[in-house]
Amino acid sequence: MTKKKMATTLSVEDKYKLYESSVQCHEADIEFITKEFQRLRGREPHDFREDFGGTAAMACDWVKEGPTKKAWAIDLDPEPIAYGKKYHFTRLNKEEQTRMQYIQGNVLDKFDFKSDITVAFNFSYFCFKKRQQLLEYFKKAYAGLKDDGVFFIDLFGGTECFQPMVEKTKHEGHTYFWDCDSYNPLTGEVLYYIHFKKDGVKHKQVFTYDWRMWHPVELREILEEAGFKDTVIYWEGDDEDGTGDGNFHPSEDEENCESWVTYICALK
Ligand SMILES: C[S@@+](CC[C@H](N)C(=O)[O-])C[C@H]1O[C@@H](n2cnc3c(N)ncnc32)[C@H](O)[C@@H]1O
What we know:
The chain has about 270 residues and is of the alpha/beta class. It folds into two domains: about 15-155 and about 215-265, Rossmann fold (3-Layer(aba) Sandwich); about 160-210, Single Sheet (N-terminal domain of TfIIb), CATH 2.20.25. Helices cover about 25% and strands about 35% of the residues. The protein has helices spanning about 10-25, 25-40, 55-65, 80-85, 95, 130-145, 215-225, and strands at about 45-50, 70-75, 100-105, 115-120, 145-155, 165-170, 175-185, 190-200, 200-210, 230-240, 245-250, 260-265. Strands 3-2-1-4-5-12-10-11 form an eight-stranded mixed β-sheet. The longest helix is centred in the first third of the chain and has 16 residues, at about 25-40. S-adenosylmethionine binds near residues 52, 53, 75, 121 and 124.
């Protein structure tokens, strides 16, 4: 008789380990924002602020880029911060640790440092559902930048992102599920879940995202209203098989597709 495995709760450590290995690619993000900052500002970026930083894996990677690099990572939730301190901060040597700071706080708060680059990645700002709230956040991001600072956000879209469906991706040792549970066409609100399967056990709704889907045009307008002088939107190039090749170029006119992820950069 085959014994059916019961779902168990993932440990906090597994939860973030599986999340990070499924959705994050900091090397590519750091390479992209550094190259774009240099192209747009003609100098090297040093001071980096990761909003909604979670475990702050990206901020830790930033300070490893060189002795002039400093980072701050801001998140409300002590749980990912504790994980990050245990698994990412400890990857840094003593000197690197002096250049990296975890902040348990609200991205809407005022901080006493200014950055060259601020990022809000993995669509985290979609939690602001009202235009007024998003405008307030973008104003705070603007205020936290140096005079020639640059703010990067990522966003996603395409025909599939409005359809209740589950996208399944196999990784080494686990399976990742991105579940679009609902989309309200009248409010733009979406409910997404992340589930994982590991060792034959499905762990459901490990992460929940109750968001508003923002359109690129709205985002650019709100960024400009918040004070940014200009915005640049990018599009990913295609591989021979039609999937994204990981190279993003500034663009203003593209064909829609089932699913896309891209960046907007806002210049102070
Ligand atoms: C989708 S996770 C993103 C984590 C990480 N940036 C990444 O790329 O994977 C969103 C994070 O935003 C945090 N968060 C939500 N609202 C926040 C706020 N107002 N200020 C600071 N952090 C916030 C949550 O605690 C959560 O860790």
